[in-house]
Amino acid sequence: MKAERIDRILPRIEELLRECCLCGHRCAVNRLENAVGFCRATSADRCRARCSSYTLHFGEEPMLVGRGGSGTVFFTHCNLRCVFCQNFQISQLGMGDDIHYSGLERIFAGLQEDGAENINLVTPTHYIYPILLGLRDAYRNGLDIPLVYNTNGYDSVALLSLLEGIVDIYLPDMKYMDAALARKYSAAKGYPEVAQNAIKEMYRQVGPVKETRGVAKSGVIIRHLILPENIAGSYEFLLWLKSEGMLDVTVGLMSQYSPRHRAHEFPELRNRISQKEYRAIVRYALDLGFEHILTQGIESADLYLPDFEKDEPFSDRPD
Asked: N- or C-end of the chain: fewer Cβ atoms within 10 A?
């Protein structure tokens, strides 16, 4: 079924690429003719995507990890320019290798053979065309584990609506609630509105998380990185979710902010958050009535290092 669905939407994906509007930048460049937009991903060969690594990842949310780990594929480049990015070598410097979609199909199949609970596409938006080609062939050859769309939230509804029936689990970020701050720290114009619309579309498609024996099979999990001085608008974010009737959505409140990359250029970003700040936001979420909150220890800022050197799982029991 998914393979046939992909075949049906490929021409419409091409239309989005012709005047590229896959994400909130809406660059309108013709990526079918190798024009390069903000994300810097090329499309000279629509059959290839640049990939930095793939692995069974055990540092993701517990319902994604299960026993076998999340079959995570990390794609190069990004449509944001976060000044505090922990993996800027991949997202902003282009580190990785170009892989034909037939290679992607083998990666997906291999991860399933190795016991992955899901296929977890990290930053897939700008490479969605070759990814879909690889997935189509993988489904035809027996891929049958859930598909995770792991994104920074800066996705167009035009794209997301085409992915209905293909993506099982959406894993978006909600980075900012203030458009000016999103532009300042991530060069993302109109980020809050774009991400809010994207999350609403994701929730419409798959709803809250549904699990089988503790492993997610479908649903939305929203990550929110708490930044110093409430730059991320954490309280406003939680209030917005409540106002949209999403108290049943799974929210990962992340304490792992660490000043990396260019963060030292901004005095307000030079410090990590305190345990007091973090606990106040977790308590606020509980008081609002959220049913599923994932937390991290405050020491996560030391454990989450660039290039996936170390990681610490989320916990589903707030301290």
From this structure: N
